[in-house]
Amino acid sequence: MTGPGDRPSPLRSVDGGRNVEGAAHSARLESVRLTFAPERLRLARLLARKRKNEVAVEVDVTPTAVGQWESGATAPSAETLFKLSLTLGVPVEFFARHRRQAVHDPAAAHFRSLRATSQAERSQALAFGELVWAVADSVSRWVELPDLDVPDIPISADASDAEVEAAATATRAALGLGDAPVGHVVRLIESRGVIAAVASSRLAERVDAFSHWYSSRPVIVLSSAKNDAARSRFDAAHELGHLVMHHDREPGSRIVERQAHLFASCFLAPPEQLVELLPRRADWGELAELKLRYGVSLKGLAYTASRLGVWGESTMRTAMVHYNRNNWNAGEPASLGEAERPSMLGRCAALLDEHGITLEEIAGEAGLPPEIVGEVLACASDAPRLRLN
Question: Which residue of 38, 138, 140, 278 has the fewest CB atoms within a 10 Å radius of its CB?
Fold first, then answer.
């Protein structure tokens, strides 16, 4: 029995178990403090799209202190870790050191909307890409992911259109397409070892598709706002163009983006085929048939007809007037259906689930909270079938 002057053990349950919970909470914080990873704090801050001074105000420290934590010069206290967790919207365990971190150069990422997005928005997007890589790296412990098999065909800034077309033709050959239309662009690039996901809802709407190399694997993140197969297919082919041609090129220039656009157009619908099939006038019925055959937009086919000289300036001008008058930018006829979605990581997780490996185990291997891993897998799956035990 406990005498009047005795104090209850902190490990004993009193007041509905609050002492036990408090002790467990303190132990949890202390465990994370001892294994604090500076890079995880920076990752969480970028995901929250916050500057160091904003975080400093919210946890009542100086911006210098936040900088020192991210550089590894010092570590936050257990109490401050809890405040950081609340401020940045991640569980405390997010800040713990993990066995592997992605090596990447943020300045080398290719963004479709580089000029339209802020640095904070791009940093947030790249942080999400790092999460996608971490989940893929975790899944690879149990599932053998496809080896990376993407051609490396460097293209210079002054390369001709013919050279870009040749790169697209060589890529089609390397991926075993022959003369056939590309059935599902996203699944094709996933089958060649590229990790793909759609953008998380936490990312800014202005962030369009982007691609980036994390360690030895590239990640492509597609826009979640484009629920249209033609657009998603073109975006995926555009980012593939960057991976093939611009591995070591400075991103963001109009030249680099134009080359990736031309690559995507030629990859999806080879010019040597289209030049014989395109109507000599703006016949939208014939163009719709080509759209359904190759999975490209009517506008894309019109621009190709103009670029190949099948249409003159007058025909192209008349076609675009008709296109805009019908407001087809909001939705073209001959719909190809909903946007293509990635599936590889989601299917891997579903397979692991069937064999008794839970989402929590995947999360533990990734060194990430289960709810964040679940979010990533939902963005990389066309049919999520995951459970939290």
Answer: 140
